[in-house]
Design a protein that fits this description.
The chain is α+β, with helices and mostly antiparallel strands. It has one domain: Cytidine Deaminase, domain 2. The protein is built from 5 helices and 5 strands, in the order αββαβαββαα. Helix 2 runs parallel beside helix 3. The radius of gyration is 15 Å and the shape is globular. The structure holds tetrahydrodeoxyuridine. The site of tetrahydrodeoxyuridine (THU) has 13 residues, from helix 2. Tetrahydrodeoxyuridine binds next to helix 2.
Length: about 140
Amino acid sequence: MDNKELIKKALEAKEKAYVPYSSYHVGAALITEDNEVYTGCNIEIASYSPTLCAERTAIFKAVSEGHLKVKTIAIVGDSSFTYPCGVCRQVIREFGKDAKIIIANNEDEYKEYTLDELLPHSFGPEDLKNANENKK
Ligand code: THU
């Protein structure tokens, strides 16, 4: 699946956004290291804080099906380029440290980033592992 096809999947997922409070639609589509495709939309809840972003919906769908490594993720939203929020960047850090992140306006207009560009000097699983090993 190429960038354009993945963006198309994200645009389709965006149509499913459940956004009665913000009316801001977001869609995400990802490919895992083992070439499975998962999509997600944002889902809003009346008490607000349980709201789930599109990126996390897609990633949690993949992880819950046993696919723990994201290779590429494409994100589309109602503004011309919708960047992942801080929480989603941290979740991508967990499951897609080396992922290609595509921020798309449409299938032809998109930008590509690494996680390190969007979340520099990040904290991740290795930090906990190293700290635990130092205690031994
Ligand atoms: N939203 C996402 O789905 N992804 C992001 O990274 C940015 C924000 C959603 C959450 C909420 O439903 C709406 O956009 C407005 O914040």
